[in-house]
Design a protein that fits this description.
heterodimer; A: mainly beta; 9 strands; B: alpha+beta; 4-stranded antiparallel beta sheet; 3-stranded antiparallel beta sheet; 21% helix
């Protein structure tokens, strides 16, 4: 069954290169919950210390990438995670909100992807 | 190739090995990260500051007390299942704290303040302004 897949950031090459080249700012992999309903998915991400201006979401085809930076007392840290979206997600209608360090992404499914009830005619 | 070390097996072993090396490479930074987001006090010139990760926490979920030089913190946030949804992948742990900290003697326990910003709880404990040493003149009688 297709689903939103949360990827392990540390296993992707770009972020490793970035963390090696940049001055030692640790990149954390934030915790993610994924929920599903008939019409959409909810992806909920814990991003303590992140404000809206420090959050960057990029969608490339079906790959959604999250980058964020946070200040933790005197130290800086970064969050990174990517998600592969199933094709039934209508990626034009993504909706994101950040509240108290928690990011909520709403990913609506295409109307034609929702289950439809098929009427059975009697002969 | 068919045999004890069939193609698919060899492939998996290599992948495991690569993953192992990757984990090894990234092991130290991730340990450091883990430490950097634990609740902890930092000392500044004029204050102590306790930072606690609390994503999704509201002020209702936090209870702070200072009594007899001890700061007690109780805080809780639990991710709730959104209504009408079913969970397909769960990682968020929820945060629950029940901790006490003995404050240093120069902590000004009357002026402790706390705020929640972007899912981080910060508790500021100012230091008492140290009394300057006073010179005592010795009179000769």
């Amino acid at each position: 069954m297709p689903n939103v897949q949360a990827r392990d950031t540390q296993s992707t090459a770009p972020s490793r290169e970035a963390s090696a080249a940049a001055p030692k700012v640790p990149t954390l992999q934030p915790s993610v919950d994924v929920y599903e309903a008939e019409g959409d998915y909810l992806v909920v991400v814990d991003l303590p210390g992140v404000s809206e201006k420090d959050l960057d979401l990029t969608l490339d085809k079906s790959e959604l990438t999250l980058h964020a930076s946070a200040s933790w007392g005197g130290t800086s840290l970064q969050y990174g995670r990517s998600f592969s979206l199933p094709s039934l997600v209508d990626s034009d209608k993504l909706d994101a909100s950040l509240n108290a360090g928690v990011l909520t992404l709403r990913l609506p499914k295409r109307p034609d992807a929702k289950p439809r009830k098929i009427a059975i005619g009697t002969a | 190739m068919i045999g004890f070390f069939g193609n698919s097996d060899t492939h998996d072993i290599w992948r495991d090995f690569e993953r192992l090396m990757r984990d090894f490479d990234s092991g130290w930074p991730s340990l450091r990260q883990a430490r950097s987001t634990q609740p902890g006090f930092t000392e500044h010139e004029d204050r102590y500051e306790l930072l606690v990760p609390a994503p999704g926490m509201s002020s209702d979920g936090v209870e702070l007390q200072v009594h007899g030089g001890v700061l007690s913190l109780r805080a809780q946030t639990k991710p709730a299942l959104p209504e009408g949804y079913r969970a397909t992948h769960l990682e968020r742990p929820g945060y629950e704290y029940a901790r006490s900290y003995r404050l240093p003697t120069n902590a000004d326990t009357e002026r402790v303040s706390a705020k929640l910003t972007n899912g981080i709880l910060s508790v500021v404990v100012p230091k008492v302004v140290e009394a300057q040493p006073k010179r005592i003149a010795v009179k000769v009688s």
